[in-house]
């Protein structure tokens, strides 16, 4: 979090997220890199919520994710938890969404 929130405000702006992604990726993204980025946005949880997506991403990107992310089924799931890992691997052809 210190990379994307150096002031420890508890908020990651979209620009900080983009800067982080740009720094973390070279010529191409990988599913693992996208998963790592979502994990930062999710506060190190294995899932992300609609509220977090809407707070951290521009509206059209948040809605894109919300329309395509499956519910998270892990033992630590909360109501409305979304599976950013399966979504990310599907983006790179490693699974189906």
In short:
With 97 residues, the chain is an all-alpha fold. 48% of the residues lie in helices and 0% in strands.
How much strand content do the residues show?
A: under 5%
Largest sheet: none
Helix segment count? 5
Shape summary: globular
Order of helices and strands: HHHHH
Q: How helical, in percent, are the residues? A: 40-55%
Cα Rg: 13 Å
Cα distance, first to last residue?
28 Å
Mean pLDDT: 85
Which spans have pLDDT < 50 for at least 5 consecutive residues? none
Number of strands: 0
SS content category: mainly alpha
GO molecular function, one term: calcium ion binding
Domain EF-hand: 1-27
Organism: Otus sunia (Oriental scops-owl)
Protein name: EF-hand domain-containing protein
Keywords:
globular, single chain, mainly alpha, 97 residues, EF-hand domain-containing protein, EF_hand_dom
Task: Please give a structural write-up.
- This is EF-hand domain-containing protein.
- Pfam families: EFhand_Ca_insen.
- GO terms for molecular function: actin binding; calcium ion binding.
- Keywords: Actin-binding, Repeat.
- By secondary structure, this protein is mainly alpha-helical.
- The protein contains five helices and no strands.
- Helix 1 packs antiparallel against helix 2, helix 2 runs antiparallel to helix 5 (84-91) and helix 3 packs antiparallel against helix 4.
- The longest helix is centred in the first third of the chain and has 11 residues, at 14-24.
- The model has no long low-confidence stretch (mean pLDDT 85).
Any chance you could write out the topology, listing elements then pairs?
Layout: H1 14-24, H2 31-41, H3 50-56, H4 59-68, H5 84-91
Helix pairs in contact: 1-2, 2-5, 3-4
